[in-house]
Amino acid sequence: MEVPTPARTANRPIAIAAPRAAHGTPRPTPPGSRRLGRALFGLGGLAVALVACGKAENTAAGPQREFPNALPEAPRALEVQAAPAWTSSHALAVDEDAVYVADEANGALVVLERDTLQPTRTVPVGQGPAQLAVGPDGTAWVSVRDSGTLVRVDAGADAPSRVIDLGGEPYGVALSRQADRVYVTDHAGGRVVTVDASSGQILEERSVGRLLRGLAVVTGANGEPALVVVQQAGPALYVPVGSNDGLPRTPTALALRHGLPSDLLFDPMRGERLGVSRAMAATAMPGDDGALIVHLETDTGTSEDELRAAAAPRFDAEPATDGYGSSQSGSGFDFGVRSRPVDAVVTRVDADGTVRQAAPALPVVAPSSGEPMTARVAQPSDVNHHPTMSLAFVTGEGSDNVLVLNTGSFDGDPMAHPVAEIAVGMAPRAVAFSPDGRFAYVLNGQSFTVGEIDLTPLLTMKAVEQHAVGGASDAGFGGGEAVFIDVPEGALPPERAAALPEAVATAFVRPVALRQDREAAYGVDPSPAAVRRGRRIFTYARNPGLSEAGQFACATCHPDGTEDGKVWFIKDGPRQTIALAGRLQDTAPFNWLGTKGELKHNMEQTIARMGGHGLDEAELADLEQFLLHGLRPPRNPNLVGDGLDPVQALGKQIFEDPEVGCMSCHIGEASTDGELHDVGSTTEVERLLRQQANEQGADLPPPGYFNTPSLRGLWYTAPYLHNGKADTLYDVLEQTAGTMGATSQLEDDEIDALVAYLLTL
Question: Are 177 and 187 in contact (CB under 8 A)?
């Protein structure tokens, strides 16, 4: 594969295949068109891409294409040394002879022989192992969530060699480049813990954020080590961990990307509406070039959607939507489609904190479906960089696939250059590579298997010849003779066309579709059959019964049964996502309006909002079983042993004081009375929306009334109130003083005590 060094070339046309006319003759090059700086192929996907990005039919887009779309730049061999595999946290690791798996469901570290993929060791490590890192000497370090421990397993050992009590809920684990330090994130407690790899001594504990996930060790701009730490709801954190010679060691926020390269063409304002959610993993880039972070971008809608809904008839579908996400794409193209509410993305952060984001670009589409390749991935769960090529692999837990992106492109933005999609087992959670880079291994979380992928087709991709893009063998790509052609005049508004980059001298490849070559079991799912089936429904986004156009599954907004921390704007007004894990049993009625007395009926309403065709009774029953019995809430870091500390105990007295009145609504173990109340949290626009809905026949509670939420898990479910207006419990008590209990007369220390107790529930 010849891949010339990228360099800008002024006014250089790019070869593309001309769209066929009615009788198969290539159309002439239109006058007054503009050259694109990326390779395009004919009958491409501009219109199809926009439809696929919107809330379209449940069927995949067909092969017919009417506009150009981009080819990705060719991947290249790395010119710098790849970061050691142990510097990034994953649930899977590989060395020369073995594959290591964190078997979360069975509480074990499982070691498989690479040649046969058969287990050779199963080491019990405790309840809920999350991730692992394997050092250069074969020592494995495993974070164990439910046990609150970090477990060391020496090379060849059949039992833990050391168990270190960290407390909290250990999640991500990575080693320093020299493998002399172990770094662990505490998902529940928001800490980063540093452990001496030799002695097992805890060297440092630092509170840095909340709901922490994966991490990667990078080299900072000053040459000192630092961590890129992922927060579930973003932003990511840059945490210096070296001596730094007196330089500040304060964690700093890393702003994650807002918008795909195609958004800059079709909807440049979309980035301002996007928020970060479901950030799960990070991996170190080769050399000292920063890190990659995988997450979702969410377009939840805005208050403008709420105002449009208030000004329009309730059942007019144009100004607002009963589903999730903003109402219209705002792109200036009237295709009658809605903006895609979620996108799986990778943010590239350089060592100095700069986010690499491409110039405006057309999407790369999957030849099999016509969808943008970046839209083929749901619920990204892991990202890992290839050891020898400029390739990043992203696992789609909700789409049973792996998306491969080129990190070595001219613009440096991997989201502009997807090169492959790999079909794997159910719910892939992690990806790792053989040291030579020839094979990739995938942990299929719901298949309980490890899949092996021969990467030879990716390592030997043939570059597209500049004058043979549309040859006879390319019938699936539109066909036609290769000609020099530019974007037709009028296909893009002038200001968008002017934003396209100049031509780039480089090589391009056609995206490919691969499959895992072999698969072997590492364990058995111990869950009851109904819970297993319900977990699959909860996770898999390509189920047309569950969601529209493969965009959503329950896990999209509820990773591990938690919440995305977002407020979604629907026709009834803003609604904060409610956490599920440990919060559903005995808390009927359900939803913020309390309109559903049974959980399965509430699930049906949610599925309708996601655009699904609907589940049958058996599927609903399985999903209900999983929601009630298959979700494990995070470990509460505010609980001290088996009891309460003095401040929390005082807060409990205040909570139970009849004159304060908290227990008049938050009753018993379920912590709810199941009744509706108006606590003054509703805006005037929301009241108007409710009034309009009832006037037009909806059977909703009176304006301002909402279901009493359970207080279980308050510590991890911010923001609060139905519309997310309260960022903290202090804000809740201030905004509802006099309407939700009599708290206005409490002293500051009493408020502190009450909040401290509420955080233990």
Answer: no
| C-alpha gyration radius of the chain | 26
The pLDDT value recorded for residue 333 is 28
**C-alpha to C-alpha distance for 639 and 620, rounded to whole angstroms:** 35
Query: What pLDDT sits at residue 161?
Result: 96
What is the dihedral angle through the alpha carbons of 373, 376, 380, 386, rounded to the nearest 10 degrees? -40
Contact 482, 17 (CB under 8 A): yes
pLDDT above 70 covers a percentage of the chain that reads: 80
Across the strands, what pairs with 441? 432, 452
Question: Alpha carbon of 441 to those of 92, 344, 390, 433, 520: distances in Å?
Answer: 8, 21, 18, 6, 11
pLDDT tens by residue, 514-530: 999 999 999 999 999 99
How do beta strands 512-515 and 418-423 pair? parallel
Place of tokens 């233990």: 760
- Collect contacts of 373-377 with beta carbons under 8 A, ≥24 apart: 373/403, 373/418, 373/421, 373/511, 374/260, 374/343, 374/344, 374/345, 374/403, 374/415, 374/418, 375/52, 375/53, 375/340, 375/343, 375/550, 376/401, 376/403, 376/421, 377/344, 377/401, 377/403
Output the pLDDT for position 339.
56
Q: Which residue has the tokens 């391009």?
A: 508
The tokens for 389 are 């090529």
In this structure, the number of other CB atoms found within 10 A of the CB of residue 433 comes to 25
SS (H, E, C) 592-653: CCCCECCHHHHHHHHHHHCECCCCCHHHHHHHHHHHHHCCCCCCCCCCECCECCHHHHHHHH
Does pLDDT of 626 surpass 80? yes
Please report, as a single letter, which amino acid is at residue 117: L
Reduced to 3 states, what is the DSSP secondary structure of residue 559? helix
Contacts of 96 (CB under 8 A, 6+ apart): 114, 434, 435
Q: pLDDT-based confidence at 16, cuts 50/70/90?
A: very low
Residue 387's contacts (CB-CB under 8 Å, 6 or more residues apart) are 78, 82, 85, 433, 435, 436, 437
List, edge to edge, every strand of the sheet that includes 149-153: 129-134, 140-144, 149-153, 162-165
- Confidence band (pLDDT; 50, 70, 90) for 249? confident
CA 510-334-20 angle, 5° bins:
40
Largest CA distance in the chain: 84
What is the DSSP track for 128-181?
-EEEEEE-TTS-EEEEETTTTEEEEE-TT-SS-SEEEE--S-EEEEEE-TTS-E
The DSSP output letter for 756 is H
Give the number of other CB atoms < 10 A from CB of residue 745.
10
CATH ID of 638-673+708-761, from 1.10.760.10, 3.40.190.170, 3.40.50.150, 1.10.10.10: 1.10.760.10
Q: Are 393 and 386 in contact (CB under 8 A)?
A: yes
pTM of the shown model: 0.86
* Residue 213 CB partners (closer than 8 Å, separation 6+): 171, 172, 185, 187, 230, 231, 232, 279, 280, 281
pLDDT bracket for residue 273 (50, 70, 90):
confident
**What does the alpha-carbon distance between residue 452 and residue 433 come to, in Å, rounded to a whole number?**
9
Sheet strands side by side (includes 119-124) = 92-94, 98-103, 108-113, 119-124
DSSP-derived letter for residue 447 is T
Burial class of 593 by CB neighbour count within 10 A (0 to 12, 13 to 18, 19+):
middle
Question: Could you give the 3-state DSSP secondary structure of residue 535?
Answer: helix
Whole-angstrom distance, CA of residue 560 vs CA of residue 324: 20
What is the distance between the terminal CA atoms of the chain, rounded to a whole angstrom?
A: 60
Q: Where are the beta strands (DSSP E) in 391-474?
A: 391-396, 401-406, 418-423, 428-433, 439-444, 449-454
What are 427's two structure tokens? 């719910």
Express each pLDDT in 94-105 by its tens digit: 999 999 999 999
Determine which of 75-79, 436-440, 451-455 has the lowest per-residue pLDDT on average. 75-79
Q: How far is CA 700 from CA 279, 593, 679, in A?
A: 35, 7, 17
